[in-house]
Amino acid sequence: MENYPKEFPAKSQNRQPGIENEMNPAPVYEYKEYKGADKLKGKTALITGGDSGIGRAVAVAYAKEGANVAIVYFDENGDAEDTKKRVEEEGVKCLLISGDVGEEDFCNEAVEKTVEEFGRLDILVNNAGEQHPKESIKDITSEQLHRTFKTNFYSQFYLTKKAIDYMKPGSAIINTTSINPYTGNPQLIDYTATKGAINGFTRSMAQALVNDGIRVNAVAPGPIWTPLIPATFSEETVASFGQDTPMGRAGQPVEHVGCYVLLASDESSYMTGQTLHVNGGRFVTT
């Protein structure tokens, strides 16, 4: 097993969703020894938040499995270009699409650009997110509430609504939720609410699309070392991030790729409406 860090330098970033190239240590997004087995050969995946963090890890893993990848991101151009370069080193194609996933018109455009470029859409990974900790619900403004829901939940609604126009039987939708709706989080009340909405959306869409042969599942990360962490929390919080898990450390983006590859491939053909938990050993009830 890799010797992943248990402590991080006390450092923060002043904007969301954060820049991976500025992180120390850099998140681990790839198992160098991972060899693809053509599980996604010839397929096309659209991944939001695919420029960094979990999205980057998934994009690289999908490329190793033979999929072309469209990466949707906000404005982190450097991170996006780095991810594109790594994806294309696997001999597949990568399309970068920059914009605000909280806007329905942009979500529609992203799906249409993906289909125009690759001729198909087989996998949708709804992964983009933002969070803004507050000490009290009274500190959460209407603006923040709407912004967090637009990025985290509305984007998944809009992209799914458009994507199913092009998805065929055997396609897969994978939504990134969180450990927080299972445990609660008093400093991330609005964020946690969006993730609870995603859970309900995942289960409802799984039933709504089952007769179309489209599977809908979710992955629920725990504390993971991504650009969102130094862009969210204080330096002191970052320094001890993830140490309260049973494994005593934060997870790395690469530790999710098994779940996302499984749920995108035919190996999970009898799974829909499910959530896979990657949280360092915390027990949750579903």
UniProtKB/TrEMBL annotation:
What family does this belong to? Answer: Belongs to the short-chain dehydrogenases/reductases (SDR) family.
Q: Name one GO molecular function term.
A: oxidoreductase activity, acting on CH-OH group of donors
Is Oxidoreductase among this UniProt entry's keywords? yes
Q: Tell me the segments the record calls region Disordered.
A: 1-24
Q: Which InterPro entries does the record cross-reference, listed alphabetically?
A: NAD(P)-bd_dom_sf, Sc_DH/Rdtase_CS, SDR_fam
Q: Which domain of life is it from?
A: Bacteria
Q: Which GO terms describe its biological process?
A: bile acid metabolic process
Keyword list, A-Z: Oxidoreductase
**Matches recorded under Pfam families:** adh_short_C2
- Protein name as annotated: NAD(P)-dependent oxidoreductase
Species of origin:
Bacillus siamensis
The lineage, from the top, is: Bacteria, Bacillati, Bacillota, Bacilli, Bacillales
Q: Which Gene3D superfamilies match?
A: NAD(P)-binding Rossmann-like Domain
